[in-house]
Structure formats: structure tokens, C-alpha cells
Amino acid sequence: MRREIASVYTYISMHATQNKLQGCDASVLLESTDDNVAEKDAKPNKSLRGFSSVERVKAKLEAACPGIVSCADVLTLMSRDAVVLANGPFWPVALGRRDGRVSSATEASNELPPTSGDVPLLAKIFASKGLDLKDLVVLSGAHTLGTAHCPSFADRLYNGTGENGAYGLVDPSLDSEYADKLRLKCKSLDDRTMLSEMDPGSFKTFDTSYYRHVAKRRGLFRSDAALLFDATTKDYVQRIATGKFDGEFFRDFSESMIKMGDVGVLTGAEGEIRKKCYAPN
Ligand code: HEM
């Protein structure tokens, strides 16, 4: 269970927190219906997992204390706990979020930061949620945990100009030795079976080694690599990569997570407290 929390919970809950399209309202947990394709089924959300774990936590809360704790609060708490269980920082989570009733795949596809994004684009998307450049470089540090499927980064390994459209030039912002290793795992652009660690060597531990990888041009996604192409984010990457400011990163991460968890929350009479996280009441 501990391992499950540290990896699976983190992804769904962190990206779900990040995804706050209608606000931090657990809309990403809603299932599609006959007349609506939900966020969950938007292409960028296809790799989200761990939904059943969220439902299990919610079911226990409902049994103990019906109608009190929203799915949005459950996700926010699970994000924090996943980080703590992976040896990361603790931060207080203010509660009282309510759950949204709307979930739109179209909106998710339009508003989620693409892996191919450069800093100006990512910063713009973050800014639209009230998050600044520092939040971007700090929260990207969450990629110290977890794994990714090949289609999320294989375009950096194969540019489609080689034989059979498969082999070609590698993204020059990616360390070539590292690219060789990644190609051994991801045999093609659309290999959906293999998983690669985003922070090789310590992908289950919340630490600062993500920044050392990025500083050495070993960030897995273009969005990670992009942090070296902006003076502010580059400075931060290089500072934390020294390993001398781990405490500073932990404090920054806590602050940015609190900020992200507060964006557009529903309170008071807005929304509802869902009974099950996958469907509105
Ligand atoms: C800056 C924009 C971001 C982009 C473009 C991005 C993109 C991605 C992608 C493509 C994956 C891998 C999906 C897969 O192939 O399975 C991933 C994984 C992950 N992301 Fe992000 N992400 C971003 C920001 C964040 C933020 C802000 C957080 C949390 C604070 C976060 C936490 C995670 C975690 C924990 C995983 C690992 C998932 C697992 O092990 O299944 N990411 N991200």
C-alpha cells in the first residue's frame, strides 16, 4: 500500500490538482456519460491511473463520516501524503473544497500543459491558473517521482525522418548517451508497454535529483528540458541541482502545492460533496 500511495496516488492526485480546469474540484475523477466526454477521457489524461485507490479512500470516509469530505479534499490530501510517504516535505492542507459537477474532455485537451511546451507556453498556462514562473520550475520537481510511457517523450528520440519513418535525429536538448539508453527501452514512437523512470535511480523518493538530471540535459520531457532555456528557471534548476539547497526546495514545493491546491476551489453552497468520486450525486 505504501508503494501504491507513493507512485500511483501521486500522479493522479498531483496531476488532478494541477488539472483544476473548473477549479480544484475533482472533476478529473468523473466518468464520461452517454452525452458527455469527461476530462478523464481527454487524450492528455489517458495515462492517469489510481482512480480505484481514490474511490477506496473515499468509500472509507463515507462509511465513517457520510457527506463531509469532498473528493477534491481527498485528492489534495492524497497528493500531500504521497509526497510525505516518498520522504518529501509535509505541508498543512486547508480543507472545505467542494466537488464540481462538470467535466469536459475538450476543455482538458485545450488547457493542459503539453509535454512539448516551452517555458513561455507553460508559463502562460500556469499563469492562467494564478501560478507563476517559480511555481512552474518548483512544481516540475514533482517529476522526481514516477514513470512515463514512451509516447510522452519518444518524439525526442525518433524524429520520423529515418528508415520506416522511425529513426532520425535526436532532440539536441537531450543528452545523447541518455537518448541511447532511452531508445533501448522505447523501440518506437508509439510503444505503450514500456515505462521509464522520470528520475532514474530514485523515482520512488522525493528528492532533488530530478534537478541534477535536468541540469545534465537528462530531463525526460521537452517541458523538463525547457527549464534550461529560460534564465529564471535555469538559475533555479542549477541552484537546486547543487544539492546544497534541498531544504529550500522542500519549502518552495510545499508553498507551491498549497497555492496550486487553492486555485478556483468551490466552497460554501457551490458544487456538492459527492458520494462516489466517479459520478455527480
Ligand atoms: C509543467 C507541466 C507538466 C507537464 C507537461 C507534465 C507532463 C507529464 C507527463 C506526460 C507524465 C507521464 C505520463 C505518462 O506517460 O504516463 C507526467 C507524469 C507525472 N507528473 Fe507531470 N507534468 C507537468 C507538471 C506536473 C506537476 C505540476 C506535477 C505535480 C505537482 C506533476 C506530477 C507528475 C507525477 C507525480 C508523474 C508520475 C506519474 C506516474 O508515475 O504514473 N507533473 N507528467
Give a brief description.
The chain is about 40% helix and about 0% strand.
Q: What can you see in these coordinates?
A:
The chain has 281 residues and is mainly alpha-helical. It folds into 2 domains: 2-112, Peroxidase, domain 1; 135-258, Orthogonal Bundle (Peroxidase, domain 2). The protein contains 11 helices and 2 strands, in the order ααααααβαβαααα. Strands 1-2 form a two-stranded antiparallel sheet. Residues 1-9 and 162-166 have low confidence and may be disordered. The chain binds protoporphyrin IX containing FE. Residues 7, 10-11, 14-15, 18, 47, 113, 115, 117, 122, 139-140, 142-143, 145-149, 152, 221, 223 line the site of protoporphyrin IX containing FE.
Percentage beta strand = under 5%
So what's the CATH class of the largest domain? Answer: Mainly Alpha
Helix and strand element order: HHHHHHEHEHHHH
User: What gross morphology would you assign?
Assistant: globular
Number of domains as seen in the coordinates: 2
> Which architecture name of the largest domain does CATH use?
Orthogonal Bundle
Biggest β-sheet strands, sense, barrel: 2 strands, antiparallel
The chain-level mean pLDDT equals 86
Assign the CATH superfamily of the largest domain: Peroxidase, domain 2
The total count of helices amounts to 11
Give the uncertain stretches in residue-range form: 1-9, 162-166
Secondary-structure topology with pairs:
Elements: H1 2-18, H2 51-64, H3 71-85, H4 105-111, H5 119-127, H6 133-139, E1 147-149, H7 176-185, E2 195-197, H8 209-215, H9 222-225, H10 231-241, H11 246-261
Antiparallel strand pairs: 1-2
Protoporphyrin IX containing FE binds next to helix 1 and strand 1.
